[in-house]
Each structure stands twice: as C-alpha cells, then as structure tokens.
Design goal:
It contains 17 helices and 11 strands. By secondary structure, the protein is of the alpha/beta class. The chain starts with 11 loop residues before the first strand and ends with a helix. The structure holds nicotinamide-adenine-dinucleotide (NAD) and magnesium ion.
C-alpha cells in the first residue's frame, strides 16, 4: 500500500473558546501544523482584552466569527475587522453564539468558571469538546456530562494528566482498573518550608519549573489547587471512586499520569512538557498526527523521581479529598472559593497560605448544601461561595 499522509481529506471545522490564552495559542499552532486551512475550517475564536492578538489570529486562520468576552472592547474589535468579512461579537451572548456555531470540534480553553456557560452550549449542540477548562467538570460534574450525552457529542480531555489517563485507560477492562495516579510537578515551592511559603510573592509563585501556562493555573500549580481541581475532574471524567485517585509528586513532569490495573501492571503516558501533544491528540482522536514537538531523550533525562505529596504544606490536596468524600456541591464551592482567593492573592490582598484557609472555611460553611439538580443551582452555589470567600478576603486584608 502506498504511503499516505495522515491529514484527513475533508476539512474539519473547529472553534477555539479562549484562543488568545496559553492553551488557545498552542491550539492554533497545532491547527497550523496539522494542515491549517487545508485541514480545518476555523469557525469562531474568542478572547477577552487582547484584541490585537484576537484580530491577528482571526485573519491568519480565516475565522468566520471573532468574539471578545468584554463588551467594552467590542467597537475596537469591530473596527479592526471591518472589511475582512469576519464578523465581530462580544459579551456573554457573543460567547454563546460562538459556542453554538456549527462545527465539529470546540476547544474549551477559557480560564475559570467563565468557561462553563459557553462550553455547556457547545456540549448541548453535540460538538466534540476538547476540554482544557477543568472548571466545567469540577463545578457542574454530572450535569455537564449529561449535557454532553444529551447532545450526542463526545468529550476528550486536554489537561495533560487526563489526556495521559485517557490514552492508557483500557475502557473494555473497566473491572480491572484499580487506581489512577495523577502526577504533579510539585510547583516552585516543592522543597520550601511552611515558613518560607508564608510570604511568597506572585512573581515567585507564577514561575513554574516545567510548564509555561496562564497566570491563574500557574498560581494553582504552586499551591497545588490545580491538582485538587484535577482530582475532582478525574473522578467525573473517568467515573471512578475517590479512593481510586492517587497523587504522586514527579518533579520532572515527564510521566503525565498513570493507570494501575488489577494484575499489577501500571501503564504510563510520557512526553515532553508541551501541551501541543495533548491538544493534538484531543482534536485528532482516535488517530495520532505528526507534531513538531520535542522528543524525549531518555539518556539525557537519566532519571525520573517520585515522592509522596505533603498535605500539610499543600492542604489543597486534603481539601479536594474532602470535597470528593462529601460530594454534593462541594466541588463547585471549592472551585469558586479558590478562584476568589487566588485573585485576592494575585492582587496582593492576602498571603499565599491564606488561600487554602479561605477555601476550607467556605467549604465547611456550605457543607449542608445539597447536590445541584440544575445549572441554575450550580451557578447559585458558585455565586454564594464567591460572596463568602470575598467577605473572608475583606476581613483579612482590612
Ligand atoms: P490563559 O489565562 O492563558 O487564557 C485564558 C483565555 O480565556 C484567554 O483567551 C482569555 O482571553 C480568556 N478569558 C479570560 N477571562 C475571560 C472571561 N471572563 N470570559 C471569557 N474569556 C475569558 O489560561 P490558560 O492557561 O490557557 O488556561 C485555560 C484553561 O485551560 C484553564 O481552565 C486551565 O486550567 C486549563 N489548562 C491549562 C493548561 C496550560 O498549560 N495552560 C493546562 C491544562 C489545563
Ligand atoms: Mg494539568
């Protein structure tokens, strides 16, 4: 048989929600590597305040629709796109329209709870969701999965750990899956003492040793709240019990995660610290496409280290386990309180370790809230947790 190039003949259509962020920029690089306009029809791109980049991306990809989440930037965007044939949109309704446009694949790469409503709209219309925004599953869990199922589309993880598990999870051997093992780099404070961690600045917290990412997730990696969200994300994504989820610190970030089976085998997925591999897999699944990313050189790596996480210095992991055990709305509450506390830390209003204190207090305060039965209840829990967290921030920073 003649050698065949792997690019599929018919262009697939794709939208990127959050195209101007770290995942978004990497996604458009993958799209270009996989054949650009010959392989993909780019439908909608969305950003927030970086209008210059959004316009540049829309022109370069031939997108049909470009949306800024920020209403006040609408005129700037519309003006910059005049004469290009690319339509401009803004605000929540613009994001909703972008997510609702016809198209095969929607890459969900908006940061935070702001990504939930548009991703949900894409799920409801049956798109294949390449999910980077972990907050969708952490806050809405089963309701989000129901929307994907009802829409008839599918969900493919982009988060590197979940992509790894997705790649080595033998779904026809469900009975034999004992545990999933999420790896964590440990972040910049892996070896710091509690005392040293008390006064860290945003600049030291954002300097991730291995991955280059957006600001919010970088701070979340330093506090390990990112791993906390990923534990909850994994429970929903893979339908496993909380006691089957383990976290292991692996400073080199080469093993992206693992699945342990009942015969003692552990399957791991490895790669360089480059999100383009996971993004490429998510948008090409079930096939694999050639990508220009760094190949692992095991002789040069020489060693891979693993160590148990320290839940005293990183209470975020303990709080994730509490949220998983309690169930109900605790995932949404943890996420909302953490987002509020993280922004307060980024604004210099609270200390690094106070983020976890605030999250724990809000979770305990709202422990009796039953599981949400509708998206309205999810948003109500989110709003209430933010309000309580903001009050605690005010109390501390006064
Ligand atoms: P980022 O901050 O670099 O980009 C966020 C994107 O969302 C940008 O396009 C921004 O314009 C847009 N945005 C910001 N606020 C918005 C709002 N209120 N409404 C609508 N859009 C808004 O973030 P990122 O690092 O690319 O992360 C995106 C998501 O992917 C997060 O949920 C993160 O946890 C997840 N994720 C990221 C990585 C990574 O390597 N960066 C890895 C795994 C998962
Ligand atoms: Mg991750």
């Amino acid at each position: 048989m003649a050698h065949m190039e792997t690019i599929s003949a018919a262009p697939r259509s794709i939208s990127v929600l959050g195209s101007t962020g770290s995942i978004g920029v990497n996604t458009l690089d993958v799209v270009a590597q996989l054949g650009g306009r010959d392989a993909f029809d780019v439908m909608a791109l969305t950003g927030n305040a970086n209008i210059g980049l959004l316009v540049e991306q829309a022109k370069a990809t031939g997108a049909r629709f470009a949306v800024t989440a920020s209403d006040k930037h609408y005129h700037l965007l519309k003006e910059a796109l005049s004469g290009t044939g690319i339509e401009a949109g803004a605000g929540n309704s613009g994001l909703h329209d972008a997510a609702s446009m016809n198209g095969d694949i929607v890459v969900a790469a908006i940061v935070g709870t702001a990504g939930l409503a548009p991703t949900l709209a894409a799920a409801r219309r049956g798109a294949t969701i390449a999910l980077a925004n972990k907050e969708c599953l952490v806050t809405a869990g089963e309701l989000f999965l129901d929307a994907v199922n009802d829409g008839g589309g599918k969900l493919v993880p982009v988060d590197s750990e979940h992509s790894a598990i997705f790649q080595v999870l033998e779904t026809d051997q469900r009975h034999a899956i004992e545990r999933i093992i999420l790896t964590a780099s440990g972040g910049p404070f892996r070896t710091w003492t509690l005392d040293e961690m008390r006064d860290v600045t945003v600049e030291t917290a954002r300097a991730h040793p291995n991955w280059s990412m957006g600001l919010k997730i970088s701070i979340g990696s330093a506090s390990m709240f990112n791993k906390a969200l990923e534990m909850i994300e994994a429970k929903h994504l893979f339908g496993i019990r909380p006691d089957q989820i383990e976290v292991i610190v692996h400073p080199q970030s080469i093993v992206h995660s693992m699945v342990g089976y009942s015969d003692g085998s552990v399957l791991a997925q490895m790669g360089s610290t480059d999100m383009r591999t996971a993004i490429g897999y998510a948008i090409s699944h079930p096939s694999r496409q050639k990508l220009n990313v760094e190949r692992l050189d095991f002789a040069r790596l020489a060693r891979l280290d693993f160590e148990a996480p320290d839940e005293t210095r990183f209470p975020s992991l303990r709080l994730a386990r509490t949220a998983l055990e309690r169930g109900g709305s605790q995932g949404a509450i943890l996420n909302a309180a953490e987002e509020t506390a993280c922004h307060a830390f980024m604004d210099g209003r609270i200390g690094f370790l106070q983020m976890a204190d605030i999250v724990e207090e809000v979770m305990d305060d709202m422990v009796s809230l039953p599981p949400a039965t509708s998206m309205e209840e999810v948003f109500a829990a989110d709003t209430e947790a933010r309000r309580k967290a903001a009050m605690l921030v005010d109390k501390i920073s006064r």
